[in-house]
């Protein structure tokens, strides 16, 4: 078929531009929406020239921080339910290692992103080059080896022809529902510029379709046998429900068989908040309804979740002796966790198969009646926690209540870390899949604004609300300027509790004195004018006082087509008491301070009753 002589970087970009994704309805889009780039030595000559030539098919976006642009790319993929993605390229040295945190986040959250950091000279001719990290004991090591444990696939391109095998492997990982996660191709800077006669077929268009694995008959039969014996069953919806496009299937499954559904952080929005089968959030940041059902459940069907400690209350939430856990998951790695009955399958196909095999079986009516009562009690708790207040320092719950009411139907909320995710998981009301966008697998401070940018690029037709604490804002705010430069509208609400309020509360809860978290406890700390700072980057910004002023500012923001930043002071101490579950945070065994000794005694009492490690299990 002939060959095409190109540099390695040109061939790589041309290959990426030829990749397409097709949904089951026949809709076809480019797999890679764009490539984020911050150029430096190590990628400006090779990748810069290649991206310029293909800027129409693969637009290049400029950011202000390497980690932030990778976070934006990851958020884009999450908002697209892993159907589309972005690439990210950086220089060598600090430009590359700035991506490592983002790679770890994508790895934990199972989200696709293609990382293309520059690397040292493969020839080693000018070694050591600027920013090269030399290993005293291994000449093959570079700083990019940091990516190995946080990449689902890693390769270093030391010859131009290596991309003929590396790129197809990378794409198979990025588009696979089981292996999905970050891919790192470290691009040696001299090799980027080297030419090779590539086969023409390498640049032909390729259409990817997401694989849907069906359930094994034996595993399905065991799951059905367990469910049909259940008296108090509970379904847990994880992020896999959304990535599989199984939200409607889950709703039909729950309705047909009379099953209550609790939602993880990643799975929230699988059911509309007002759906009669929705028991709300589960776990440490869970609703009283879902957690009560979990404590009594004799059969738990977990769909598309890895059941991390916040979901399981550090494995103490499911307390019923002899209870059965069924793990419906595309990945065997997750389906086998916690001594579960595995049901390895795509979420949608698995639920369809389960429903068909269950036939007309439904959970006992008394379970449905109990769910209705528990949900009604929880709904009243949410109403109280989020009601408008005249307090000079409102709680986080009161602020998010005001934002939730102003946002209306179809809006997307974005958050990631601190105390806000707990309040949002409990209290935010979303009516559609994708309306709740939380990064809580890695709980990465700094994700919020960059993530909001990625979400808005993915869903330009929807209002995006970013809720961010002052501590996280200080860690990463530069992509406000990127949003302004791209003409992308974000609604950013900065909740200023003057420090790391969430960790201060945890510090106090474990017996510690307030120390090194709140500004009032740090010598020399000064108040920060976040509104003025945001305005300096081109945002429309204002500082408000109290919920009434916040509501007015939200209306003004909604009416504009510009990025808005609204700053409000909040109470660093108050948090929603209703709901929640125990979380295993180890307390020091030895301390000179009585509050710590008391906290340790309480911790040991919790461990004593733990169903896995405790004496009373």
Protein model, in words:
The chain has 24 helices and 23 strands. The termini are far apart. Strands 5-4-6-7-9-8 form a six-stranded parallel sheet, sandwiched between helices. The protein has a six-stranded parallel sheet with strand order 14-13-12-15-16-17, with helices on both faces. A six-stranded parallel sheet has the order 19-18-20-21-23-22, sandwiched between helices. It has three domains: 3-208, Rossmann fold; 217-377, Rossmann fold (3-Layer(aba) Sandwich); 387-569, Thiamin diphosphate (ThDP)-binding fold, Pyr/PP domains (Rossmann fold), CATH 3.40.50. By secondary structure, the protein is an alpha/beta fold.
Give the helix/strand layout:
Layout: E1 3-7, H1 8-17, E2 19-22, E3 28-30, E4 32-37, H2 46-53, E5 60-62, H3 66-79, E6 85-90, H4 94-97, H5 100-109, E7 113-119, E8 153-157, H6 163-174, E9 182-188, H7 189-192, E10 195-199, E11 206-208, H8 217-228, E12 233-237, H9 239-243, H10 247-257, E13 261-263, E14 278-281, H11 288-296, E15 299-303, H12 309-312, E16 324-329, H13 332-335, E17 341-344, H14 347-358, H15 365-386, H16 396-407, E18 412-415, H17 420-427, E19 436-438, H18 447-458, E20 464-469, H19 470-475, H20 479-486, E21 491-496, H21 501-509, H22 530-536, E22 540-544, H23 546-558, E23 564-569, H24 594-608
Parallel strand pairs: 2-11, 4-5, 4-6, 6-7, 7-9, 8-9, 12-13, 12-15, 13-14, 15-16, 16-17, 18-19, 18-20, 20-21, 21-23, 22-23
Antiparallel strand pairs: 1-10, 2-3
């Amino acid at each position: 078929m002939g060959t095409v002589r190109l540099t390695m970087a040109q061939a790589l970009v041309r290959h990426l531009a030829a990749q397409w994704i097709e949904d089951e309805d026949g809709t076809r889009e480019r797999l890679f929406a764009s490539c984020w780039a911050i150029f430096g030595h190590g990628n400006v000559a090779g990748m810069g020239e290649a991206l310029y030539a293909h800027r129409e098919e693969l637009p290049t976006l400029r950011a202000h921080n390497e980690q932030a642009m990778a976070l934006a790319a990851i958020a884009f993929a999450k908002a697209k339910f892993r159907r589309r993605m972005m690439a990210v390229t950086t220089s060598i040295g600090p430009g590359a290692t700035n991506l490592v945190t983002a790679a770890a986040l994508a790895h934990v959250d199972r989200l696709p992103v293609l990382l293309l950091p520059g690397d040292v000279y493969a020839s080693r001719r000018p070694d050591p080059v600027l920013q090269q990290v030399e290993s005293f004991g291994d000449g093959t090591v570079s700083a990019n080896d940091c990516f190995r444990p946080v990449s689902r696939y890693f390769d270093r391109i030391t010859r131009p022809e290596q991309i003929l095998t590396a790129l197809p492997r990378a794409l198979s990982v990025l588009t696979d529902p089981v292996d999905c996660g970050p891919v790192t191709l470290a691009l040696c800077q001299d090799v980027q510029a080297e030419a090779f006669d590539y086969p023409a077929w390498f640049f032909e268009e390729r259409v990817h379709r997401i694989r849907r694995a069906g359930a094994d008959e034996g595993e399905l039969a065991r799951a059905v046998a367990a469910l049909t014996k259940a008296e108090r069953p509970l379904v847990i919806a994880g992020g896999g429900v959304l990535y599989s496009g199984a939200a409607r299937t889950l709703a039909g499954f729950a309705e047909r068989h009379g099953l209550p559904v609790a939602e993880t952080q990643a799975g929230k929005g699988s059911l509309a908040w007002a759906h009669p089968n929705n028991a709300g959030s589960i776990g440490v940041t869970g609703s009283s309804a879902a957690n009560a059902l979990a404590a009594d459940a004799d059969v738990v069907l977990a769909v598309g979740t890895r059941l991390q400690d916040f979901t399981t209350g550090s494995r103490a939430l499911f307390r019923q002796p002899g209870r059965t856990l069924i793990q419906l998951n595309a990945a065997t790695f997750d389906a086998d966790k916690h001594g579960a009955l595995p049901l390895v399958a795509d979420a949608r196909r698995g639920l369809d198969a389960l429903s068909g095999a269950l036939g007309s079986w439904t959970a006992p009516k008394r379970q449905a009646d109990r769910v209705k009562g528990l949900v009604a009690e929880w709904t009243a708790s949410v109403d109280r926690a989020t009601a408008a207040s005249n307090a000079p320092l409102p709680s986080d719950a009161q602020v998010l209540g005001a934002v939730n009411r102003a946002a209306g139907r179809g809006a997307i909320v974005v958050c990631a870390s601190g105390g806000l995710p707990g309040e949002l998981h409990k209290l935010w009301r979303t009516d559609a899949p994708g309306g709740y966008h939380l990064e809580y697998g890695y709980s990465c401070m700094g994700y919020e604004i960059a993530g909001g940018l990625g979400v808005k690029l993915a869903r330009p037709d929807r209002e995006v609300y970013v809720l961010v604490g002052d501590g996280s804002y200080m860690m990463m705010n530069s992509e406000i300027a990127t949003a302004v430069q791209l003409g992308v509208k974000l609604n950013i609400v900065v909740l200023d509790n003057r420090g790391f309020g969430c960790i201060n509360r945890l510090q106090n809860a474990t017996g510690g004195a307030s120390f090194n978290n709140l500004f009032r406890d740090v010598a020399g700390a000064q108040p920060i004018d976040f509104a003025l700072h945001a305005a300096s980057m081109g945002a429309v910004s204002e500082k408000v006082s109290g919920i009434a002023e916040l509501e007015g500012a939200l209306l003004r923001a909604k009416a504009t087509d510009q990025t808005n930043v609204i700053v409000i002071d909040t109470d660093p101490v108050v948090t929603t008491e209703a709901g929640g579950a125990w979380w295993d945070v180890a307390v020091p065994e030895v301390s000179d301070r009585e509050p710590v000794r008391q906290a340790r005694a309480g911790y040991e009492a919790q461990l004593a009753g733990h169903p896995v490690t405790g004496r009373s299990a």
